[in-house]
Amino acid sequence: MDQPVAVKFKNLHHADEPLLLPNAWDFASAAAFVRAGFRAVGTTSLGVAASYGLPDAAGATGVQTLALARTLARLPVPVTVDVEAGFGMDPAALAAELHAIGIAGVNIEDGRGDHLAALDEQCALIAAFKAAAPDVFVNARVDTYWLQLPTEDTTRRALAYVDAGADGVFVPGLRDEHVIEQLVAELGQTPLNLLAQLPFQRLGELGVRRVSTGSLPFRVAITQAAAAATAYATGAPTPAAMSYDDAQALTLS
């Protein structure tokens, strides 16, 4: 019997090697990652926001993110969705809707523009989400490094979020190997997630259990799209691309 998608996703964080999570911005990019053999797919808030001409991390893409979640839920792998700071929605209602759609996890950030949310406020957000959807894997993002703020509270925030119910902790921007090892030890069985900013193998050696590509694939894709058009205009070789039939076949995923 197949495992429930939430159980399958949680188990991927305790496999022999870290879960390498590519972050998609639409159905085609997610389906391409599945075709490439990735065991789960996430979303990138920057990619989703930019695709609609909206700012990232501003709570402006709740409707678009939910619409994307509904299409991604049909993929044959677990899907986790970046919900920024909750889009200003009722966290219980958002959690219940994502769970009903079939989403396996979410990423919830504590950054609020150029500052961090109050610790008790963020813990309450996480707790409300978990109470409404206990099976959904909550990855609590700590933005101390990402916002280049004082980082001495990173561990305190991470452990507080775990106490509030978070299933994993995400610290984008953290690259100091000594600090990574310390945080892994402090978190114990709770998986640490980092961005793909150090070599994948090395992150595994340090005890990191999940590595996210973040907005990198989206930024590469739009860079290469512009490069392809420019190459044609100048007579230069165009970048390699999948065939029309292969791209059309992605919709059958």
TrEMBL record:
<dbReference type="GO" id="GO:0003824">
    <property type="term" value="F:catalytic activity"/>
</dbReference>
<dbReference type="InterPro" id="IPR015813">
    <property type="entry name" value="Pyrv/PenolPyrv_kinase-like_dom"/>
</dbReference>
<dbReference type="InterPro" id="IPR040442">
    <property type="entry name" value="Pyrv_kinase-like_dom_sf"/>
</dbReference>
<protein>
    <recommendedName>
        <fullName>Isocitrate lyase/phosphoenolpyruvate mutase family protein</fullName>
    </recommendedName>
</protein>
<dbReference type="InterPro" id="IPR039556">
    <property type="entry name" value="ICL/PEPM"/>
</dbReference>
<dbReference type="Pfam" id="PF13714">
    <property type="entry name" value="PEP_mutase"/>
</dbReference>
